[in-house]
């Protein structure tokens, strides 16, 4: 049996009661890994650079192995840019190449820039008009129940290609699940960690990392999923929130 272990940490109150989002984490693990994992999640919540948490929720839920979907990790590249402005321009170009229309990319970027704080979930944005479609206000859609199939192999694969740090390890797993969703054109994200300036654009064709998508010290961050106008929102949300996914590291012979 595999277990979904999910952590959410907030400041001031629980998220549902208006608490400020501090940290979150997702893993799919065996029973004997749960104890050590939950301890590390608690330590992570208490040491996050976004601030001191006073609410931590950890959920452990059994997942039937026959329900797990396996996906191959997205190809990964880094796109250098001179500064944040250039990084955002390059990200918009990547969205356009994936099929997001220019008005939608502009509107989506403006929504991220207008955030007063981070969102713990994602906004669903029409990839043609830029209209927000999820109706969840400040909560957003939380992508859940995903992990890499082999942590050690994944870490070695990333290190060999110059990708290090927990942010990118978690982001590319999430992006791989999202890119496989029916109706999703592309994703745009930058972190709410004030010490982490990178972000990415991801689609079925790959994960493009941009080292500078926000200024250092900024706590506002979030993610957008650009979707096709005809997408069934209910089915998409069900997949993102409940479908268990294990991401498989590509073979080395590439």
Automatic annotation (TrEMBL):
It is an enzyme of class 6 (ligase). It catalyses: heptanedioate + ATP + CoA = 6-carboxyhexanoyl-CoA + AMP + diphosphate. One of its GO terms (biological process) is biotin biosynthetic process. Its EC number is 6.2.1.14. Keywords: ATP-binding, Biotin biosynthesis, Ligase, Magnesium, Nucleotide-binding. Pfam families: BioW. Its cofactor is Mg(2+). InterPro entries: BioW. Pathway: Metabolic intermediate metabolism; pimeloyl-CoA biosynthesis; pimeloyl-CoA from pimelate: step 1/1. GO terms for molecular function: 6-carboxyhexanoate-CoA ligase activity; ATP binding; magnesium ion binding. Homodimer. Catalyzes the transformation of pimelate into pimeloyl-CoA with concomitant hydrolysis of ATP to AMP. Belongs to the BioW family. HAMAP family: BioW (MF_00668). This is 6-carboxyhexanoate--CoA ligase.
């Amino acid at each position: 049996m595999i277990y979904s272990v999910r952590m959410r940490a907030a400041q001031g109150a629980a998220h549902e009661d208006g608490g400020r989002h501090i940290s979150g984490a997702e893993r799919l693990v065996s029973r004997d890994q749960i104890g050590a994992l939950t301890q590390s999640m608690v330590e992570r919540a208490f040491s996050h650079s976004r601030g001191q948490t006073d609410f931590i929720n950890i959920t452990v839920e059994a997942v039937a192995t026959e329900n797990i979907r396996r996906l191959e990790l997205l190809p990964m590249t880094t796109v250098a840019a001179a500064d944040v402005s250039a990084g955002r321009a390059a990200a918009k170009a990547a969205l356009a190449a994936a099929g997001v229309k220019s008005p939608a990319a502009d509107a989506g970027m403006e929504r991220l820039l207008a955030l007063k704080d981070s969102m713990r979930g994602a906004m669903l944005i029409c990839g043609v008009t830029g209209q927000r479609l999820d109706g969840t206000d400040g909560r957003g859609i939380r992508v859940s129940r995903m992990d890499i199939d082999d942590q050690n192999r994944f870490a070695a694969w990333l290190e060999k290609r110059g990708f290090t740090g927990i942010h990118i390890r978690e982001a590319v797993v999430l992006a791989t699940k999202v890119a496989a969703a029916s109706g999703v054109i592309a994703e745009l994200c930058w972190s709410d960690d004030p010490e982490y300036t990178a972000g990415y654009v991801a689609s079925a064709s790959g994960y493009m990392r941009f080292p500078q998508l926000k200024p250092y010290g900024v706590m506002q961050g979030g993610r957008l999923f650009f979707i096709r106008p005809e997408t069934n929102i209910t089915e998409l949300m069900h997949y993102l929130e409940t479908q268990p996914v294990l991401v498989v590291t590509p073979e080395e012979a590439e």
